[in-house]
Write a structure and sequence with these properties.
Distance between the termini: 24 Å
Strand content: 35-45%
Largest sheet: 8 strands, mixed
Protein name: Glyoxalase
Order of helices and strands: EHEEEHEEEEHEEEHEEEEH
Organism: Amycolatopsis nalaikhensis
CATH class: Alpha Beta
InterPro entries: Glyas_Bleomycin-R_OHBP_Dase (IPR029068)
CATH architecture: Roll
Shape: globular
Number of domains: 1
Strand order of the largest sheet: 5-6-7-4-8-11-10-9
CATH superfamily: 2,3-Dihydroxybiphenyl 1,2-Dioxygenase, domain 1
Number of strands: 15
Length: 208
């Protein structure tokens, strides 16, 4: 089964990005950084999410992200799905922190259950078929709306959502051009998906 080993964010200043993510979310091995000045305008077509146990954890992580330099796209709030908020990191990546719980059950923690890479795609069914052909195992599927793949032992889960719906969920306009500014490692052979997201082998990512 194919899965994600690491995510590489292409940023203007890798050292500054590493400091931000360590301070904001306590992320370590899940993320890598490399310098890039590739043009990128508007929505980059993906979001990254941290799923946590309770609303207090959402507030804690978003609070430290804002203190470290992130900007608010959606302030934490209750919804029919639970509780969550969205911020944009200084490097431009969009992060959602959310929980399905609507009430706290204990003191706030800095722990998260999973990191989710959510790709905004033009055709969910076509992208689902593409990723299945590259060794991904479908875990959940809701027609042409949403697909989530099994993570296995991976620290990061992959999911697909319609681009416009993902942008709306993030609180941004769906338009965007240029580089996605992200590369994903875990493929047996390097490939680019139908929406232009680049996948690398883990060996190649480690050398970057």
């Amino acid at each position: 089964m194919t899965s994600i080993d690491t995510i590489t964010l292409e940023v203007a200043d890798p050292a500054a990005a590493e400091r931000f993510y360590t301070t904001a979310f306590g992320l370590g091995s899940q993320l890598r950084f490399r310098a890039s000045d590739a043009p990128s305008t508007g929505f980059r077509g993906f979001t990254l999410s941290l799923t946590v146990a309770q609303p207090a954890d959402v507030d804690s992580l978003i609070g430290t992200a804002l203190e470290a330099g992130a900007t608010t796209l959606k302030a934490p709030a209750k919804s029919m799905w639970g509780y969550g908020g969205v911020v944009q990191a200084p490097d431009g990546a969009i992060w959602k922190v959310a929980t399905s719980a609507k009430k706290n059950t204990g003191p706030a923690t800095r722990e998260f259950d999973a990191v989710v890479l959510l790709l905004g795609v033009a055709d969910v069914a076509a992208s689902k078929k593409f990723y299945a052909s590259h060794g991904f195992t479908v875990g959940k599927s809701f027609g042409r709306v949403y697909v989530e793949f099994e993570a296995g032992s991976s620290p990061v889960k992959l999911a697909l959502y319609r681009r416009k719906a993902l942008a709306k969920d993030a609180g941004v306009a769906p338009e965007g051009t240029g580089s996605h500014r992200i590369a994903v490692a875990g493929a047996a052979e390097a490939f680019t998906d139908p929406d232009g997201f680049a996948w690398e082998t883990t060996t190649a990512a480690a050398r970057s």
